[in-house]
Amino acid sequence: xxxxxLPSKDVFVYTGLxxxxxxxxxxxxxxxxxxxxxxxxxxxxxxLGVGPLYYPCKGADDSS
Length: 64
What we know:
This protein has 64 residues and is mostly helical. It has helices at residues 15-20, 26-40, 43-48, 51-54; strands at residues 3-5, 11-13.
C-alpha cells in the first residue's frame, strides 16, 4: 500500500513512496489522481456497508 483515501476525503501518501518515485512528480500526480478518483466515486463510503453482508458476526452460524 502506497497511498489511501479515507471516507473523510483525506488522502495519505506514505513517505517511503516519495523516496522511490522519479523527481519529475508525474508518478506522484498519477498516485494522487488515483486516490482522488476513489474519493470522488465514494468507494470507501460504499465499502463501509458491505462488510456485514460478506462477514457475518462470528458465532452466528457456529453450532458450538
